[in-house]
Amino acid sequence: MNARESNGRRAVGAASLRAAGPTTSPWLRILAKAAAAAGAATVVVMALGTVMSGGGAALSALLGAALVVVFFGISLLVGHVVGQRNPSGAIGAFIATYILKVVGFGAALFLIGTPEWLDTTWFFIAAVAAVVVWQVAEVHAFSRVRYQIYDDQASTPNGAPRKDGRHAG
Q1: Distance (Å, rounded) from C-alpha 83 to C-alpha 23?
Q2: Alpha carbon distance 106, 90 (integer Å)
Q3: Helix extents (H) in 54-119
Q4: Helix, strand or coil, per DSSP, at residue 4
Q5: Most confident of 6-15, 17-26, 77-86
Q6: Does the pTM of the predicted model rise above 0.85?
Q7: Are 82 and 33 in contact (CB under 8 A)?
Q8: Which residues lie below 8 Å from residue 17, measured CB to CB, with a gap of 6+?
Q9: Total H helices, total E strands in the chain
Q10: Which residue has the higher pLDDT, 136 or 167?
Q11: Which of 78, 93, 101, 143 has its CA 20 to 30 A from that of 87?
Q12: What end-to-end distance do the CA atoms of the chain give, in Å?
């Protein structure tokens, strides 16, 4: 079933399998996948909150999850913007932004306080659910990102090393 082509690649049907290239600017795709997963979890928590405690619980859950999505989304947007100019610097910008967000989130909660209408239990449940689901989806999406670590141009078209002794890496 799997025949070998003359270049050594395995052929499947009429198409040959080739190594995947690097993923170009993965941050927006990661953002979309993580936000969709957190959004689905939020809908479930809002439905549970509505059934168990009423509309205020659903609104509280929506607010808790929305804060998580906004704060986590900021990091991925910063990663995207920085990654356009300096792909290797995106992770550092992501980490720096994360630290600033944690401080900002804490300050916002402290300064704003708790509105009277807020159901803190459902706010907390939705926020925790959004964090957990977001992180799982983000790690899964990030695990699918491919970075090119070798210079494929350093070899000849048939895959042999260049004669001048240079190698990729």
Answers
A1: 12
A2: 24
A3: 55-85, 90-112
A4: strand
A5: 77-86
A6: no
A7: no
A8: 9, 10, 11
A9: 4, 3
A10: 136
A11: 101
A12: 35
